[in-house]
Hints:
With 188 residues, this protein is mainly α. Helices cover 79% and strands 0% of the residues. The protein contains 8 helices and no strands. Helix 2 runs parallel beside helix 7, helix 3 (54-72) runs antiparallel to helix 4 and helix 7 (150-169) packs antiparallel against helix 8 (173-187). The chain starts with a helix and ends with a helix. The mean pLDDT is 91.
Amino acid sequence: MRQAFKWAYDLSLVIIGTAIYAGGVYFFTEPNGIAPGGVVGVATGMYALFGTSVGIMTFLINIPLLVAGAIYLGKNFIIKTLVSLITFTILLDYIYVYFPVYTDDKVIASIFGGLLMGLGLGIVYLRDGSTGGMDISNRLILRKFPNMRMGSIIFITDAFVVLFAVLAFKDINVLLYSGITIFISTKL
């Protein structure tokens, strides 16, 4: 019984953290063309190129990462990550669409997007979960190269994602605003 309560508590916090994280993406970064790093940043770049849904694209990109993560990172971690991904997709594509987004100032959008995303990620990480994507690949990279620091791995993968987004949006400002969002998110 105690284990079931802990599991329900963990999943509840993963969902709450994911809702906060998704709010940062939906209300601030996505409508302002800010690529917040990770798979969401890739999905944001794909949106710029093809008009694809950020939520659905994030989920699809994560499928092979989930398979790899299931093999190497454990069942509980992957279940929590899958719950987070489903929550993220549903909120981004089906629930948050009924609310207005912020597009007045990209610096403010970068700051608040980073704050919400960092807070949401922190809550998810506290329950040993993840929002998927680069969280999985970064953990796999760390397993392969245990002498690297996780912060360095995240910086490298986020740099590639942001460079992709700059090319997708054809706008160097994406680099600057995304840098603000990533910096604030990782500090939180």
